[in-house]
Structures are given as C-alpha cells and as structure tokens.
Give the backbone structure.
Amino acid sequence: MIACLDDLYDPRWADSWDAVGLVCGDPGQPVRKVLFAVDPVHAVADEAVGWGADLLVTHHPLLLKPVHGVAAIDPKGRVVHCLLTNGVALQVCHTNADSADPGVSDALAETLGLIDLRPLDAAPAEIGIADQPSSRGTGRLGVLPEPLTLQAFAERVADALPQTAAGVRAAGDPDQQVRTVAVCGGAGDGFLDLVRGSAADVYVTSDLRHHPASEFREHGYGGTGTALVDIAHWAAEWTWLPHAARRLVEGLATRGTTVETRVSRICTDPWQIHVPQHPMTPPEESPH
Ligand SMILES: [Zn+2]
C-alpha cells in the first residue's frame, strides 16, 4: 500500500523542509480501508476510527517540527495516540503530491475546468533528458475553453469548490476577460512574481496577504492587470483527495489488488464564521 502511494507521490519529490511519508503504523499491516483528508486533526482521526480505516492519508504533515515525544498530552500527541491505539496508520503526501504529475494543482485546475495544463514552476529537468522541461512542478497554467468575465470566473470557482465560510474573493475588474489561468493549491504567494511574468489573466491560490496582493495589483494600475482569486486553503487542496483516491485504486489494480477508499467531508478550514458588512457611510459635507 505504502509502496503504491510512494510510486504516485515519490517522497524524493518533496521539498527539503517537508516531512512526508509514513508517520505512524506498521508498513507490513494489511490495509483494507483508506481515508483521505487534508488535515490530520482530531476530528479526522475520529472519522478514520469510526469508519474502521486501516490507513489515513493526509496532505498536510502532522509533525513538521521536531518533537521529543508523542504522548497524549497535546493535540498532536493525542492524534498519534488515537490513531495507534485504534490500528490506523498515517501517511503524509504533501509537497511530493504538490509537485507530482498529476498532482494537487492539476486536481484544482481540472475542478475549475482548465485545459492544456503545464507547470507554473517546473521541476528541474529529469536526468538524461536535460532539454525536456519536467512535466512535474508546483502550480499549473491552463486555459478556459471559453473566456469569462472575472465575475463569472469567480462564481465558477465558488460553485466548483467545497463550501467554506470564507467563500471566494477576487481582486480585479469584475468585467475584465480571463482565459489563461494560473493556479496553485495551498499558499501560493511565493509565486506572484512568476505569475506576473506569465501569460496568466488571473491567479487562483490561497492565503494571499495584504501587502503581496496589493503590490501585485499595483503593477496593473491604469489597466486591467492580472486578477487574483483567493480561495480557502482547505477547499483548494480538498480537490486533490478524490484524484489521489482514484489513482491509488488504479495503481493497486495493476498490482492485482484493491482497497476501499473514502474522502473525508469534514471541513477542516479553521474559519467557520463569515459576516458580510455594510458599506461605510460617506463623509458628511461640512456646512458652508
Ligand atoms: Zn496545504
């Protein structure tokens, strides 16, 4: 099971700072049921136990910083304890799934209806075919079959993604036409300069902060510029879960075996409340 996942999402493709692979569990343990989720949080561990999963596959790592123990005295230790005492193993496919082909951003791009996908930030060329750019990499550039206004595109994004309280927000002229789209599952503000140098009409990613977003938009001042669509991190990466589950089943089929899969529908976006506001009142005219 782990070998099949490692074939799809090779741990060597992970960034050097990342912590991917088997977090807890015995690689020799038989696996019949696999639950896929974005975050290894306690609600997801409870779902895995309640469903009788043998393996939980999450996108985000549970333990990214060094720890001295996994006793059930803090949230992460409690998750490890809950999983181990119920016979559930945990495997993490994080930046190795981001940079796979197909990977997390392919799933996001396909969910949004994009075609002709290529990496936004291509991985170094494979050894032996140095002239060929890698088909792996982070983020994707693709096109919409038909151009849309930014407003219509943002609505399409909102309709296509699983619901979160935050919803979808966009920066740009609602009437500007968008056709070439850059996407990056997860926090993609590190690629804003790369997007600006690309043909993208709009960039879809998560966790965009005020200054990077504002400075990016300033480059388009006086014209339309490249628009931004900010989506919930959890929702973006959730789109990868059904893809990964399907690819695991297909990979196991070539090995003459199978497994039951399930995609968690627990929304683990930390933001649970959204409050629309009223417009600011105009300044009062001073009497003359
Ligand atoms: Zn992420």
